[in-house]
Amino acid sequence: MSAVQAPVTAQELQTLSTKAIDAKATAYCPYSKFRVGACILTASGEFVHGANVENAAYPVGTCAERVAFGTAIVAGHKEFRAIAVATDITPGASPCGMCRQFMREFTTASFPVYMYDGEGKYTVKTMGELLPDSFGPDDLPK
């Protein structure tokens, strides 16, 4: 599984951000009240979204990024072009360490991660910037 490095168009970025921001409304976060929405752009041009799902036993919850990637993977998608992550805070939040490692399984160092704040403004970083010197599938013997 890998990321496809085709650049994201302005229209695709608009759709990606809208879907990530809208996904926050579906978050189940009764404990932290910290809503997160995510949306992935697949190589085939589909948009797959997710939101965080908390649990009373905190470590059992699932972050929006992992919900979106898991949904995409089980739907048969194997290549991805970008992800948008949206929160209500300013500046926007970066994916947590667990999500960074999870996303690294399915992406490359140049994969773009757009991070949206509560006002709809974003910063973008690559997986390589968010998880430098990462460990991934290519580090294991085939």
UniProtKB/TrEMBL annotation:
GO terms for biological process: nucleobase-containing small molecule metabolic process; pyrimidine-containing compound metabolic process. Residues 11-138 form the CMP/dCMP-type deaminase domain. GO terms for molecular function: cytidine deaminase activity; zinc ion binding. Zn(2+) binds at C63, C96, C99. This enzyme scavenges exogenous and endogenous cytidine and 2'-deoxycytidine for UMP synthesis. Belongs to the cytidine and deoxycytidylate deaminase family. This is Cytidine deaminase. It comes from Penicillium canariense.
